[in-house]
Amino acid sequence: MCILRVAQALLALGILVTTAFIAIQYEIGGGGSPSQVNFLLFLSVSTLVLALPYLTFSHHYFPHAAHKFGIFAAEFVTMVFWFGGFIALAVFTTEFLGCSAPVCGAAQAATTFAAIEWVLFMISTVMSIVYFWTRNSNDGRLPDISGGLTGLGETAAPPMQT
After folding, report:
1. Residue 157 lies in a domain
2. Where is the MARVEL domain (predicted)?
């Protein structure tokens, strides 16, 4: 899971750099940057500042904040936002076909990075769903899969019938 989080952070950083470059180029050209670029810029910052720190550190440092519903919600919402962001930028970059300017290449790179980021968040969302299902529904602990074994290695006696 650590490798997955590092990959998500590196991709979010790459998307932050490429979308910032695109936004600066549009500002230099005299126009405002497109909303698709602005959304991915916001999403990369929110992933780096909010989602990844919560998903990475809440288990160890804030166990009361690491509720299974909160983890699932953070994973799912982030995954949906990355899907929407990369689709919106992909539709926007269809205008750049045949363009050889650096901003066109940056937009295509940002689209590719965002698609990979979406796949990584889809994988981590599936992992959180598995985590969600393997937790005890009452208190969040793992379910007892010991098969009736007690802590001493003996089998527990069946309940007495009256």
Report:
1. no
2. 2-126
Q: How far is CA 116 from CA 82, 102, 159, in A?
A: 9, 21, 53
pTM (global) more than 0.70: yes
CB 37 within 8 A of CB 44: no
> Does 140 map to a domain?
no
Question: Does 26 map to a domain?
Answer: yes
Residue 158 inside a domain? The answer is no
Domain membership of residue 36 as a residue range: 2-134
Give strand pairing partners of 155.
149
Task: Report pLDDT digits (tens) over 23-43.
Answer: 999 999 888 899 999 999 999
CB 46 within 8 A of CB 89: no
